[in-house]
Amino acid sequence: MNQYYVGVDVGSVSTNIVLLDSKDNQKLSEALYIRTKGQPMESLREGFKILQDKGYSSEDILGVGVTGSARVLIGHIIGADSIKNEITAHAVAAINRYPQVKTVIEIGGQDSKMIILREGVVVDFAMNTICAAGTGSFLDQQAFRLNIPIEEFGEFALRTVEPVRIAGRCTVFAETDMVHKQQEGATKEQIVAGLCEALVRNYLNNVAKGKSIEEPVLFQGGVAFNQGIKNAFEKELGVQLVIPDHFNVMGALGSAILAKEAIHETNKPTLFKGFEIMQRNHLLKRVECRDCSNACELTEVTVAGEIVAKWGDRCGKWQK
Amino acid sequence: MGNGKNKELLAAKIIGIPRGLSYYLDNFSWEEFFEILGYRVEYSEDSSAETFAAGNQLAGSEQCFPVKVYYGHVVSLLQKTTNLFIPQYTSLEQGTYCCPKVIGLPQLIKNTIPQEFNLLTAEIDLGREKFTKGNILSLARQLTWNPLRISRALTYFGQNSKRLPSKIPEGEKFVGPSRDQGKNGLIGVVAHQYALQDSLLNMGIMNRLGEYGFAYVTSEHYPRPESPANPGYFNRRAPHWDFGQNILHAVQGMLLDKDIRGIIFITYFGCGIDAFLEEIFKDQVCDQKPYLGLTLDEHSGEAGLMTRIEAFLDMMIRKEGKNRHAD
After folding, report:
1. For the whole model, what pTM was predicted?
2. What distance in Å separates the CA atoms of residue B126 and residue B247, rounded to the nearest whole number?
3. In chain A, what is the straight-line distance between the N-terminal and C-terminal CA atoms, in Å?
4. If you placed Cys at B244, which of A156, A159, A189, B273 could pair as Cys (CB 3.0 to 4.6 Å)?
5. Rounded to a whole number, what is the distance in Å from the CA of A305 to chain B's nearest CA?
6. What tens-digit pLDDT sequence spans chain B (327 residues)?
7. What is the DSSP letter of A5?
């Protein structure tokens, strides 16, 4: 009988779940990529349902790791053994797939990252700071505006050799620029290719500034699917990008490995509450704590009228 | 005002001092100074979300986060007293200057806060002793007729105002502060003094370090050398600003300090001083010690901030683990 570690990455655009074979760190038994659509709980319920339908049982799960922007929320609800940030998760996964990796470019929905590794250890990293112009959501929006399915976005970019130049510093300006270029007669293909270049320029100026990019360079995250972006990167950097298999679930893979590490370290049984837990009705609420003038915003989770978790306070009194 | 003619000011016998920016310079006890002149000092409360909300309405949008919070302190103090003391620090030693926002603070506040109040101020340029003394004298004269009190206050200022913050015990000056290493190691936290002291401004980052098993020392523990010297380590001219020099010297000290595993630099959007320093650090610190620059403002989301700090600390913990396995 096979046993597994579950890795969950709940991000802004997609919710990813992997099952990692407990005996073999290279073997992914399942890799799900589900659109979050602003509802992390719903998408996770959907994912767990798929796993249950495929015949996986909660008893075979040895540990669970969670990452992504909703990691704390989801970790509290499903009972995670490891709740880790996306950078660590992506780095761990990159090392797992490609031990000699020196640079990781990861572009997700909400943020984009660069991770610098040497000899299998993270030595430096950067994340986009203020602006979303270098992320997947930006492409998502523009694809929607141009009425192109996001899956075909990259191909569109490849069909032209003359991209137009689009200001990529800010999504609002980029859109103004796009409209302007369209009115001047640029084709959809030229605009899409121009957008890919703008995103790459923005990434290199904001996130990768001052970092020494050495090969091998891994390109992961949902945006790695986009051939147009890959080409733009290779043109700008003058290096070949490696796209790992499972590039779009690397965060989830990393958190599964981190869960395995955590279980081995503590030697305790998993905290996982089972796939069934998501079938119960979790009521989420944002409440403002009125106990002091800091007025922290708290997240409160209620199941059947009973508060099961509450966090988000600076002083720590609710987290216990 | 002038020569103690302001009846309202004299009658109240209370002077309010907002707790922000120059308050944290810690080079001189204004409270005692004003007590000698016969006044009681009221301070504003700890910074909170309310402080910021109040300040943000009045401060211009181009101001930095710490200045906006300072406005909030002024607003809340004005509910207690209409006498406010806002010192005008222009320089802490010859040849260097405070940041323009700190220099212009009294006028900035007076001209943008609609409520009427008595502004007490004095330009303090510690590189120019006579000039500063003259300003302190006219400040004292506004507050009392009593020549004895004035002369005592003046003497007090002369004896106690220091060029540099010097809370650091003598023995620590060279070997660094005595320290607890934490379970996972020691982190150096670098920032302007007001940011280190005010947990609204630093968003409780230091507490988070503790939660992850790290101890920390702040840049306050790495004072500048007695005489103004170039921080030779960075092989460049000393910056023009007092605060910038403090930070550069602190980072130099931390880089040479074997116990410190990584350095976190907290800065704010729109800070001209830090913008220069950040570039130097990105260039020269990264190669030597793990370095994390955090640029904050009122929009900073806790989530993104925590992701960065967590990743930074994880990086060090995992590195150590790897080294252990290698042995």
Report:
1. 0.82
2. 19
3. 37
4. B273
5. 28
6. 444 446 666 677 899 999 998 888 866 788 999 999 999 999 999 888 888 888 888 888 888 899 999 999 999 999 988 899 999 999 887 778 888 888 999 999 999 998 888 999 999 988 888 999 999 999 999 888 899 999 999 999 888 876 554 444 444 444 445 566 777 888 899 999 889 888 888 888 888 888 888 888 888 887 666 554 555 566 566 677 878 888 888 888 888 888 888 899 999 988 888 888 888 887 777 778 888 888 888 776 677 788 889 889 988 888 776 654 443
7. E
Q: Which residues of B touch A129 (CB under 8 A)?
A: 295
**Contact at CB, A210 and B286, closer than 8 angstroms:** yes
Among chain A, residues having any CB pair with chain B shorter than 8 Å are 69, 84-88, 111, 120-125, 127, 129-130, 209-210, 292-295, 312, 314
Q: Beta strand A306-311 with A82-83: parallel, antiparallel or unpaired?
A: unpaired
CATH architecture of the domain A99-243 equals 2-Layer Sandwich (3.30)
Which residues have a Cβ under 8 Å from the Cβ of B277 and sit 6 or more positions away? Answer: B239, B244, B247, B248, B265, B267
Kindly report the CATH number that applies to the domain delimited by A4-91+251-279: 3.30.420.40
Q: In B, which residues are within 8 Å of A86 by CB distance? A: 307, 311
Say which CATH architecture domain B177-326 belongs to: 3-Layer(aba) Sandwich (3.40)
Within 13 Å of residue B167, how many CA atoms lie on the same side as its CB?
11
What fold does the segment set B7-160 form as a domain?
A: Rossmann fold (3.40.50)
Complex ipTM: 0.79
Say whether B177-326 and B7-160 share the same fold.
yes
Query: Amino acid identity, residue B178?
Result: S
Do the Cβ atoms of A6 and A64 come closer than 8 Å?
yes
Contact: A127, B307; criterion CB under 8 Å: yes
